[in-house]
Amino acid sequence: MLYKPHTSTKEKALGIEMKPHARIKFEKLSGRSVQLCRLFSDVEFLYLAATPDGLVDEDSILEIKCPYAARDTKSPVEAVNNELLKYCNVINKNQISLKNEYKYWYQIMGQLQITGRKKCYYVIHTHHWMTIQEINYDDEF
């Protein structure tokens, strides 16, 4: 077997439960509609595929993370400062940003390449807060 079988965990269960709420909240906060989507296959490398959490406008995707480790934090900065979101940095004292050397960055760049879109709305959502970061496709990637 190439990969371990999927197992149900409390972390995955939280993400499954929270993503629809995060999508609705994103629509309200951004004023944009999200179209649900299925699997996209790369036109050149058919073995590569991506499933964004949604399509936004004509040129963007939505990627949502609902981190179990940060579920009880009161702010994204608190989550980063307590090392619960090791894939983010604090910027401007009250905002966070995805590190571009982390696997989620690679995931987003791959999704943008495969879908042919130019921008990702990267959302981190918990019961207490939400962040939205716009990440543009990097042609040099």
Automatic annotation (TrEMBL):
* UniProt cross-references to Pfam families, sorted A to Z: YqaJ (PF09588)
Q: Which residues form the YqaJ viral recombinase domain?
A: 4-117
One GO term under biological process is: DNA repair
Question: What InterPro entries does the annotation carry?
Answer: NF-kappa-B_Signaling_Reg, PDDEXK-like_dom_sf, Restrct_endonuc-II-like, YqaJ_viral_recombinase
The name on file for this protein is YqaJ viral recombinase domain-containing protein
User: Organism classification, top ranks?
Assistant: Eukaryota, Metazoa, Ecdysozoa, Arthropoda, Hexapoda
